[in-house]
Structure formats: structure tokens, C-alpha cells
Design brief:
By secondary structure, the chain is of the alpha/beta class. It contains 17 helices and 25 strands. Strands 10, 11, 12, 13, 14, 15, 16, 17, 18, 19 and 20 form an eleven-stranded mixed beta sheet that branches. The chain has a nine-stranded parallel beta sheet with strand order 5-4-3-2-1-9-8-7-6, with helices on one face. Strand 23 and strand 24 form a beta hairpin.
Length: about 675
């Protein structure tokens, strides 16, 4: 139960921006929302200038009327704190609010998020605004959830200004305590970078050549924390006024600037915004599935909300393809299948002015009555009411992929052996499990792994003592681990681990890596299984490894390291640790993961399904709910085997062999 006032329901709604429209339209909005089954709207996200026209004046009358209208029509408000876009008067009075880029350029107003997270003037003004909003609406019957800011760091990701410099120094003092510790962590003996005074320390601004790598890594950590500190400031104000109202903000899936593992501890429930490109539907559904799985995994013991999606086309790509009929429903129900208790949109009514006027909405420019998009949304709203028994249920995963923002940041810092696209590597692994219809969680390196049978650590570049101990304990107690290339290279300070990689994991994996052989685009190698029956293409990377107890399962076929181990297994305690020292193309990866997942870990999908049919299972006190999603353009026949149940949408009892129409979804309450 993530929002008590909507307990027992699937959340359905949108961003609502009535301040962009005359009040004569508002009543019609209410009527159409009720017709669609909307039960929650995000209100006031970009309304700071409307709420506070000047430093000394406030205008809440219009929002009062909106909130009253919502309550009258039994629609709840996800009330925003409106701090995502400072008004013009504030930046005029305090130009120091504006952020500076790494090369010293000022980012001016005219868009949104034009503030530095370190700005004291911004913090003071934002706190005043949030206090006013909380005081006024704390007891309003429409208030169901607080929405703090909006898509933190989406457009302004780092500030290098003077206040950011001062706060960075304070952050470093809090972390390292002494300059000696800072100098040791940053390795400042290299290139004569030793600091003798805290005032000598700066953010990694534009420099003649590569900046200190640990300095860059720490600045990314600091920036994530600086934005989080803003969130916590607003959260504290709201919590004092309304301790019973849940608080959240919208994440953005695999979003580099913010460590969502750390952030998720501070929200009452996770929510995210997803805009997969329909120009490639196959890629879009996997991308959306992975983002759903990540968002669910950030708080694995409760559902989440899809806070924003497009009803059809977006406006920011070179080509903005509309979602063809049926695709919006399919993508929306994929969220519910993978653990979401809410489906929302940006936005209710398509804007008639501004940058996003060509972004689709529930009510398009043609109006509701003439819009196939509106009809599809209306139909989905009715269907979600029938799926109410699914609410507050869980997805139980037996597989975890370790995904670490610090590794991501560090892998993309200057001066590395080669470019590794860290999230792409994690998503390649996820895609295999997705196509096998096996549930996956994305977890942090310090997560409790006891609930899983199989853990995969793709290119886990940073491995500290705690992470190494956790992985060893997991395998020792009977778990199965798959680690991949370029893992265990550095510690948390980005210092190379000496004596052979993967250093802290050497005994667990039973091998050591001497050096690497990266490949450019179009180049690669092949690996051959030791039984000689299989050979597969590999690319991007090859670890030149030596066995130290591990069993070789495949070797490289080419290069000066021909015959060297490429894929190994090491028995450790009651479990097994596998290592893959390269990136395999799809056929080879399928060979590896089938062996590890099905044979070593003993994990298999609940059903055997045709290609293009996705399944998921959610469980609560009402029982098990089987989701079947047909992503293909043809009807698909499915054998439910011994399972049977009731299709929640139609009430029909299903058993044995069933047929799912193209782009359709069945939600079956199993019996």
C-alpha cells in the first residue's frame, strides 16, 4: 500500500497543468478525467512563478480552486512542491543561483532546472515556497501524496560555480577529515597535485589534460548528494506538517548523474518516467522492462509507480513516431506486470504553447471526442479498475544483476583502457533473462543476496572489501555467481588493485588477470568450448587470464593469448563462481547463461512461451497473478499446462491451451 488514500486500487492519472488554461476548461477536465477513470493527478510541478509572482506576493487562489475541484470529483492530488523551475524574479535578484558548466559558462533562464543545487539563495527560496504550500494544503481532502521537485538533474547535471566549490570542500572534509587522507585517496603525489590547504581544492573544471580520476569520481558522488540534500530539505518540511502523507519524486531509470540506490532509501515509494522509442518496438519493450525492474528493485518489498509516459509521440527526438494502436496499453500493462501499482502520463491536456506543445497527451489538440489516443486511454482506465486485486502484490525474483552507479561513473572517467558502456553491458544480460521470462532484480554491491539463487556482476570495476565479502558469502552458502570482464580492478578510491586482477575476488573466481586486449568496432575474437563442440564470436574486450584453481570451460581461438581461458568455473564452498572474460554476441551469451541459469542455479521460467510473448507473476494475499503480454502482430497459442485461472478483464475461466490476440494482454488470477 504505497498511497493509503488509494489503497486497493491501481493508480491511474497524469500531470495536470491547469495554470496553462482558462478556468472555463477546468470543469470539462474533471468530467473527462472521471470518464477515463483518473484517480490521481500531479499538480503544480512548474507553477512556482504562478504561485509566487514576486518575492513578497503569493497567489494560491487558483490552486485552491483546482484542489477543491479535484476533491469534489473524487480525484486525488499528487501535489508538487513546484521547485523545479525558479521564477524570473528570483534569478534576477540572485543571479548566483544560475549554474556554471565545467568550462565556466553560465546556464541562463529560458528552459527549466536553471539552478545550482549548492545555491543558498535557491535553497532559502525553495524552502519558503515548500513551507507555504505545506501549510496551506496539509489538511486538504484531495492531498494524497507529495511530489518533490521533478526529474532531479535531468537537464542541469553538474555545477562548477563558487558555491558548489565551497560545498564540495565541505563534503570532502566530512568524508576524509584531513588533507592527508584526501591526498592519499586522490593519489595527489602523481603530477604534483598535493594539497596543502582546503582552499586549494576545486571541482574538476576544464583543465589542459585529463583531470585527477578520483577527483572526478568524488565530484560525481558529491553532486548526487547535493541534489539529494535538496530533496531531504523539502522532505523534512513536508514530513513535519503531514507525517501520514507519502513523499516521492520521479526517477528516470538508468540515469547516470544520481545514485538511485542511495536516493531510494529516502523516498516512501519509487516512481519513474519512461519514454521508450516506438521506432524500434523490440528494443523499446526491453528498455521499458529493464527500467521497470530497476525501479522495482530499488525498493523491492513494495510496488512502484510509472509517473510519466507518453500517450503517443514525444517531441524531442529527430523523428517522433506515434505509438500505434494497442502499443500504449501494452507498454502500460508491462509496468503493472513487473510490479507497478500505478500508470500515469505526461500530461493531461496537450499544451498550446511552449517547448512541449507537440508532446502527446491524454487530451490531444483535436480534443477528446475526435482522438483515438483518448479512446485508448479511456479503455485502459476501465481495465485497470478490473485489475484492482493485483494491487499491493510483489514480483519474486531469483536472479539479481549487480548495478553500481560508482562503477558507472568511474568507468566513464578519462583515461581508461577502452570505452565500456556499463549500462549497455548490464542490459545485455537483462535482455537474455527478459526473453526467457525469468524475473530479475537490479541490486547494489552491498545488497543482501540471500534471497537469490543467481547473481550476475557485469564489469564490476569497483570492488571494495564489503562487496567482496558479500559475494564470497553468497557463493559459499550455495549461490551461483557470474562475473564478467574488467571486474575487481580498483577499490572505492579508483586505485588499481595490485598483484593481479580481480584482486579481492581472485580466490572466489580461481584465476588472475594479467592484462587486457580491447577491440575496436568491427574487431573481435572467438571462444571455443573445451569439449570442442561449440564456438562463438566475442567482441569489445578480452581478459588475458591465468587459472589458479578454476576449471576452464572455453578458450580464445585467436591472438597471442590463443588457448587462454575465456570462460571458467570455480567451485567455492557450496556454490560455484563463473567468470566470462569477454563480451559474447547473442548466440554465445545464450550458451553461457543457459548453462549457468538452468543447470548450475536450477532456475527455469514458469511457462514455455513463443518468442515475443512476455510473462510475469505477481503474488499477494489474493493469490498469484499471471501476466501474458503478446508483443507480436499475430495471435499466439499458449499452453498453460497445469495452471488455470480467471481472466480479470473478461471474467472468463482459462485452462489448457489458450490463444492471445496480437498486441493483447491477459491477466489471469491463478487458481
Amino acid at each position: 500500500m504505497i498511497i493509503p488514500k488509494l489503497s486497493g486500487k491501481i493508480i491511474f492519472g497524469c500531470d495536470y497543468n491547469p495554470e496553462q488554461w482558462p478556468e472555463t476548461i477546468w470543469q470539462e477536465d474533471m468530467r473527462l478525467m472521471q470518464r477515463c477513470g483518473v484517480n490521481l493527478v500531479s499538480v503544480g510541478i512548474f507553477s512556482w512563478a504562478k504561485l509566487q509572482p514576486s518575492a513578497d506576493t503569493w497567489n494560491f487562489d487558483w490552486l485552491d480552486r483546482v484542489m477543491d475541484l479535484l476533491a469534489e470529483h473524487e480525484i486525488f492530488a499528487c501535489l508538487a512542491t513546484a521547485t523545479a523551475s525558479p521564477p524570473a524574479w528570483l534569478t534576477k535578484q540572485h543571479p548566483e543561483i544560475l549554474p556554471l558548466t565545467r568550462d565556466g559558462k553560465t546556464l541562463f533562464p529560458g528552459s527549466r532546472q536553471h539552478y545550482s543545487p549548492s545555491s543558498s539563495a535557491y535553497r532559502k527560496a525553495a524552502a519558503t515556497l515548500v513551507e507555504k504550500i505545506a501549510e496551506r494544503y496539509q489538511d486538504h481532502p484531495a492531498l494524497a501524496v507529495w511530489h518533490i521537485n521533478n526529474e532531479y538533474a535531468c537537464h542541469m547535471q553538474e555545477c562548477y560555480g563558487e558555491e558548489s566549490t565551497q560545498r564540495f570542500r565541505l563534503w570532502l572534509k566530512n568524508k576524509y577529515k584531513t588533507l592527508d587522507s584526501l591526498n592519499e585517496a586522490w593519489g595527489t603525489a602523481f603530477w604534483s597535485q598535493i594539497f596543502g590547504d582546503w582552499d586549494e581544492v576545486h571541482p574538476p573544471r576544464e583543465a589542459p589534460y585529463f583531470s585527477n580520476p578520483t577527483q572526478q569520481l568524488d565530484f560525481k558522488r558529491f553532486t548526487s548528494d547535493a541534489f539529494l540534500d535538496l530533496f531531504l530539505m523539502e522532505k523534512e518540511i513536508l514530513r513535519k506538517r503531514t507525517p501520514e502523507i507519502p513523499i516521492t519524486t520521479n526517477f528516470m531509470g538508468f540515469f547516470k548523474p544520481l545514485d538511485y540506490h542511495r536516493w531510494a532509501k529516502e523516498v516512501d515509494f519509487t516512481a519513474w518516467d519512461s519514454y521508450p522509442d516506438p521506432i524500434d518496438e523490440k528494443a523499446a519493450r526491453q528498455t521499458h522492462a529493464a527500467g521497470n525492474d530497476l525501479t522495482r528493485s530499488l525498493k523491492p518489498d513494495q510496488p512502484f509507480v510509472l509517473m510519466e509516459q507518453a500517450s503517443s509521440a514525444v517531441n524531442w527526438r529527430d523523428i517522433n513516431l506515434p505509438k500505434r494502436p494497442g502499443l500504449m496499453r501494452l507498454i502500460s500493462l508491462q509496468t503493472v506486470a513487473r510490479g507497478g501499482d500505478g500508470v500515469m502520463y505526461f500530461q493531461w491536456r496537450a499544451s498550446k504553447a511552449g517547448t512541449e506543445k507537440y508532446h502527446s497527451a491524454i487530451v490531444q489538440h483535436v480534443g477528446a471526442e475526435n482522438s483515438r489516443v483518448f479512446r485508448e486511454v479511456e479503455k485502459l482506465g476501465a481495465e485497470l479498475k478490473q485489475l484492482a486485486p493485483v494491487s499491493d502484490s510483489r514480483v519474486q525474483a531469483e536472479v539479481a544483476i549487480v548495478f553500481d552507479w560508482h562503477t558507472w561513473w568511474s568507468l566513464e572517467v578519462d583515461s581508461r583502457p577502452s570505452k565500456i558502456d556499463y549500462p549497455a553491458g548490464a542490459n545485455q544480460i537483462h535482455d537474455w533473462f527478459y526473453r526467457q521470462n525469468i524475473a530479475v532484480d537490479f541490486v547494489s554491491p552491498d545488497a543482501d543476496l540471500a534471497r537469490y539463487k543467481l547473481v550476475v556482476t557485469p564489469s564490476l570495476y569497483i570492488v571494495d572489501d564489503a562487496c567482496a565479502a558479500s559475494l564470497k558469502a553468497f557463493v559459499e552458502q550455495g549461490g551461483t555467481l557470474l562475473a564478467t570482464y574488467f571486474s575487481g580492478i580498483v577499490d572505492e578510491n579508483d586505485h588499481a588493485q595490485l598483484g593481479g586482477y580481480p584482486a579481492k575476488l581472485r580466490d572466489l573466481l580461481g584465476l588472475w588477470v594479467e592484462e587486457w586486449h580491447p577491440y575496436s568496432t568491427g574487431q573481435g575474437n572467438r571462444i571455443r568450448s573445451f569439449d570442442g563442440n561449440s564456438s562463438y564470436d566475442c567482441e569489445l574486450w578480452a581478459d588475458i587470464a591465468h587459472l589458479d584453481g578454476a576449471e576452464p570451460l572455453a578458450s580464445f581461438e585467436e591472438g597471442f593469448f590463443k588457448g587462454g581461458p575465456a570462460y571458467t568455473k570455480n567451485d567455492y564452498g557450496k556454490g560455484a563462481a563463473y567468470y566470462l572474460g569477454t563480451r559474447l554476441k547473442s548466440e554465445g551469451l545464450d550458451w553461457v547463461l543457459r548453462n549457468i541459469c538452468y543447470q548450475s542455479a536450477g532456475i527455469e521460467p514458469a511457462l514455455t512461451l513463443p518468442e515475443g510473448v512476455e510473462s510475469a507473476i505477481r503474488t499477494n494475499e489474493n493469490g498469484e497473478f499471471l501476466f501474458l503480454l503478446n508483443h507480436t502482430d499475430a495471435a499466439q497459442t499458449i499452453d498453460l499446462s497445469a495452471r488455470s485461472g480467471v481472466n480479470l478483464a473478461s471474467g472468463e475461466h482459462l485452462s489448457g491451451t489458450i490463444e492471445i490476440p496480437p498486441l493483447d494482454v491477459f491477466v489471469i488470477q491463478l487458481q
